[in-house]
Design goal:
Blueprint lengths: L1 E5 L8 E6 L5 H12 L3 H7 L7 E6 L2 E7 L6 H14 L7 E5 L13 H15 L18 E5 L6 H24 L7 H15 L2 E5 L1 H7 L2 H7 L7 E7 L9 E6 L1 E5 L18 H15 L5 E11 L11 E2 L7 E2 L7 H16 L3 E6 L3 H7 L4 E5 L2 H14 L3 E3 L17 E2 L8 H10 L8 E5 L5 E2 L8 E2 L4 H19 L1
Helix pairs in contact: 3-4, 4-5, 5-9, 6-9, 8-10, 9-14, 12-14
The chain binds ligand BES and zinc ion (2 copies).
One zinc ion binds next to strand 10.
């Protein structure tokens, strides 16, 4: 899809889209439009309220004209969703060339010029709406149609075109990692994830070191190896690094993503919901996506992304409940439940990252517990941190981006049941209570008292119901959250300098 700013539409457009907020001046705009389009005023006013995602189609000037409702809030994801849904709706229809009139698209009471922001979200939404979930159909019906988009605006200094580029590239990467997540275990192994990263790194210019099994053994990533014992596929330990091309990095940010390509539970085999477990690499997907976009957009941060990846399967060699395993940190772990495998591989990746990179901020994303889903449902990730500032910053990034997080406690008591008699720590407290907080306490053992560590449990939000498919699909949750967090950080650090 090509999206360009234009000061005058070309005459090949089949469709003109006019996005509108539900606000006081709406009536005035509709009055003007009713005259231009020769539609009786009362009819237009009664048929179009500018509710979020509302679509009103009419014809005039030999074109299709679409009024697109944006609702009454200016939020990134609301604009994205409105355009995503419009773009999805164009499937199989003649929407090859569309124009979008954003000239009169300012929201009341907002002074600054929001056009670049709008253009970015519009671009993301249009690109996401063309995502095709039919990955493995024998006959795919690829009938998405939008090829060129002209956005009507004055763009003297190129800011809008730059924003379009950002929105488009972000969404393209989101789509890539959605595919990784949507593919089933039959089509996705640790090796496939590593291949994907290698290609992406080469294409977009970031560093990727892929550690194979022998190196993993040499390094002593023993918790990852323990989980991998039940698998016929060797593990991979993926280390990615982005450095800004010019100038010094504002901060070093460490990211860890859980890359379990399929979670059967191991010998503690799952009795429920196992078919969802191809999505147990949602944390990895978020980290892959963030690394790729960081490189594409050359973000001013030094970012290290680590993904430990394996499946969690059943075999004669599988770890058994009660086994004691070693870990990279040196701590021994009593494995009470083999289905609490994510925290094992995350433990190794977190201690490796802290030891080798000493990041200013350390974050992890993982589809870690059913408990977080039972607590927050499908509507927010669960955030755990002892750092108040970080909690606040990430919370706000979640509110702005629509990838919401809600903080849950990490009080000392939640770690009480993780004490082991035989080993340093147990991976599960053997009670059904507060499992998400307990998991966070487990991970905390492996971050060497890092002062700015945040764990985000995305079990309920990485793979979710949407308006775009019959069943749950990948959401790419985490990418927009992290992008927004970093953008805000950049903004604050650059204003602090001035
Ligand atoms: N991958 C699961 C968590 C999960 C649950 C992700 C639902 C997505 C949707 C994780 O490895 C797991 O099995 N956790 C167990 C931990 C328990 C055995 C301590 C859980 O939450 O039940
Ligand atoms: Zn599990
Ligand atoms: Zn898991």
């Amino acid at each position: 899809m090509k999206i360009n700013v234009t000061e005058g539409f070309s005459d090949r457009l089949s469709t003109l889209v006019i996005p509108m907020f539900k606000q006081q001046s709406l009536q005035g705009w509709l009055n003007t439009l009713s005259e231009l389009l020769n539609i009786p005023n009362e009819l237009l006013l009664s048929d179009f309220k500018a509710n979020h995602k509302e679509v009103f189609t009419t014809y005039g000037n030999g074109q299709r004209i679409i009024l697109l409702g944006l609702g009454d809030k200016i939020l990134q994801h609301r604009i994205i969703e409105a355009f995503r849904s419009l773009s999805h709706f164009t499937k199989g229809k003649n929407f090859t060339n569309i124009g979008i009139d954003i000239i009169n698209f300012q929201f009341e009471d907002i002074e600054q010029d929001l056009l670049p922001f709008f253009a970015e979200m519009i671009s993301s939404g249009l690109v996401l709406g063309q995502y095709d979930i039919q990955l493995l159909k024998s006959k795919s019906e690829t009938d998405h149609t939008i090829e060129t988009v002209e956005i009507l605006a004055f763009d003297e200094d190129g800011t809008i075109q730059k924003a379009i580029h950002q929105g488009l590239e972000t969404a393209l990467t989101q789509r890539e990692v959605m595919t990784l997540l949507n593919l089933p275990a039959s089509h996705k192994t640790a090796l496939d994830l590593a291949d994907w990263v290698q290609k992406s790194a080469k294409k977009h210019g970031y560093k990727a070191d892929i550690f194979e099994k022998e190196e993993i053994e040499k390094l002593g990533l023993n918790a990852l190896l323990a989980v991998n014992r039940g698998s016929e596929i060797p593990p991979r330990f993926i280390v990615m690094e982005h450095q800004p091309k010019d100038g010094e990095a504002l901060k070093t940010i460490g990211l860890v993503g859980k890359g379990v390509t399929y979670d059967t539970g191991g010998l503690n085999i799952k009795t429920q919901g196992m078919h969802f477990m191809k999505s147990d690499m949602g944390g990895a997907a978020a980290v892959f996506g963030t690394m790729e976009i960081a490189a594409k957009l050359d973000l001013p941060f030094h970012i290290i992304g680590i993904v430990p990846t394996t499946d969690n399967c059943v075999d004669a060699k599988s770890i058994k409940p009660g086994d004691v395993i070693d870990s990279y940190s040196g701590l021994t772990i009593e494995v009470m439940d083999t289905d609490a495998e994510g925290r094992l591989i995350m433990a190794d990746a977190l201690s490796y990252l802290v030891k080798h990179y000493q990041p200013d901020v350390l974050m992890d994303l993982a589809t870690l517990t059913g408990s977080s889903v039972r607590t927050l449902g499908y509507y927010a990730g669960a955030m755990f941190t002892q750092n108040e500032d970080l909690a606040n910053e990430i919370y706000l990034a979640g509110q702005r981006s629509g990838e919401r997080v809600w903080r849950l406690p990490m009080w000392e008591e939640y770690g009480n049941n993780l004490k082991s008699d035989i080993a340093d720590v147990r991976n599960y407290g053997m009670t059904p209570l507060a499992g998400a907080s307990e998991a966070a306490k487990f991970l905390e053992n492996f971050v060497d008292n890092h002062p700015a560590y945040v764990h985000i449990d995305i079990a309920g939000v990485a793979y979710n119901d949407t308006a775009y498919a019959k069943h749950k699909i990948a959401t790419a949750f985490g990418i927009r959250l992290l992008m927004d967090y970093m953008r805000q950080l950049e903004l604050e650090m650059s204003t602090a300098d001035n």
